[in-house]
Amino acid sequence: MDLSSNNLVSGLPPFNSTTQPSLASINVSFNALNGPLPAQWGTLSQLTLLAVNSQQAIGAAASKLSGPVFPPGWSALTALAQLHLAANNLTGTIPTQARLDSRMSCVVSLTDL
Questions:
Q1: CA of 66: how far to CAs of 31, 55, 88, 91, 97, in Å?
Q2: pTM of the predicted model, to two decimals?
């Protein structure tokens, strides 16, 4: 699902494996989204790409995602191969038990979340 650069505002939708069982990619980059990464996304076992980078201000309000970089339950994202998180206000680390490093082909700017 590519919704990048669409001037979307507010929070991220709580997709889950019940509502979107075969969702393989989420790209909401270059919008004006804020709030946390939804814990429900951890149930998306087919997800291979997640891009939430570069949330930007639209109008006077600044927008950036915040909260944990890897919400509880996300270790179930066993197919995840690309993770784009740059230019947000995310905190914390990706837990080593998630074992994503062996599958990842691209991780963008983990130092600037």
A1: 14, 11, 7, 7, 22
A2: 0.82
